[in-house]
Amino acid sequence: MAEESIQITRFNAIPSPQQFTSLIEPKNVPAVFHGCINHWKAFCKWNPSAGGLDYLEELAGSSTVEVMLSKSAPVFYGDIRNHERVQLPFATFIGYCKDFSLQSKVEHTPCSSEKKLLPESFEAEQDSLLVGDDPCQIYLAQVPIMNTEKEERVQLGVLIEDIQTPLFLETKTLASINLWMNSAQTRSSTHYDPHHNLLCVVSGSKQVDLWPPSSSPFLYPMHLYGEASNHSAVPIDKLDLSVHPRAEHSKKYSQRVILHAGDALFIPEGWFHQVDSESLTVAVNFWWQSEMMSGMLEHMDSYYLRRILKRLTDKEMDQMLCKTSPYVINKPSHEPSGGNMLHDLEPCSLKSLHELVSLVHGHVNAADLSNAVDPSSDIEKTDPKKIMTSELYNLEDDPVATIFWSLEPLNLQKMFLAMVHHFPRTLEALVLHLVSPVGAEVLTRKFEEMDQLINEEDRNKFYREFYGVFDDQYAVMDILLNGKESFSRQAFKNVMDKFLGVKVQ
Predict the structure, then answer these.
(1) Nearest CA among 172, 169, 212 for reference residue 192
(2) Which of 7, 372, 442, 473 has the fewest other C-beta atoms within 10 Å?
(3) 0.90 exceeded by the pTM?
């Protein structure tokens, strides 16, 4: 389920500009404002069940608007391959809404294909664009009422007199105000917007499913270089888990809001949302740039990019390690024992030593060992050069890394010291040839934890003895660092795939 810190909040009282700017907007979490636009003139005048269609036709019927024709009705996908935008007199669209309303009352169905609602002339002109005869594929989406960046795109500017910018947005520099209107039930594809958004329902109702930006891996965002890069690649109507396996878990991260006439929903930039609209629903939305985006300086973009990718990569590395500490680390109240005999080891450490010895022997096809570890056994006849290790990146796939991970840092230290004194060649073979990328990451993390638990003298003594086993100490350090970098590189590849849909070779 969604984390408590990103749960949608609901307000019955409208916040002041200061409250919204300081307490709500900075959290980047959706918020619902009930009854936010009940005072609008549009709230009364645009209602289709109260003569609103006639009013809109008289007020703006002569305007030309752009409608969406979907090839996958009632779902409207953002990718232009799945829809076309066609110029149409607003009065003609209103006519479709009136016909649909009348037909629905007669047939009691939200969208019937038995009767054509499109005029013959229009169908003839747009025949190549229509999938069938179903008028449910027409949607008035994002038609500008106001646009500060491209004033020439404004198609329904006359409607501005019937709406008011909500009080808490009065200090914002709005990018655009848009009209959304549908005759039959519609469903938008899952997507996010690059602006903050306030969606206001004038009449009808909308059901909105929302996902935080952190849910991107489960929604498979389309390529950044694509025409619909802010849309999910997961089809709403035909999910195929063999193509998008992570999508199976997407519902766990979603939250649902149902908006009724008069309600408004703040959708922060980057939040994925999928909207179902009831038939004959009318809505207006406001877009504005967030404080964060407006404050990002272009000459800093590459730095921000690197910082964000690094943070996502670090988080991915923790997930690859299934990072939940298998023990509780407590600072010892006394100096750790300097013992390095096998009988000084904790039972768990001795068991781990047995397992590591067995793994080393298994890689060189050594003779079966007895259950007890014998310092005079053939273990020291192992040739480290004969051992090979796989490129393993997940903790559950690597038995050596799993053993390292299960031990407390000080127990791991004692086990290594015992190997230094009793099985130096086995330790050499283990580190040089059985430590995979995930093993190198775990081992160096354990060393960092150990450094926090012992004093400088003991720390220097341990590393002197540990690295003294190897003929070339610097080569060992290179192996561990190269393994860590390989692990980080795999985490980076995962991030690029999950969040950007890019396969890095």
Answers:
(1) 212
(2) 372
(3) no
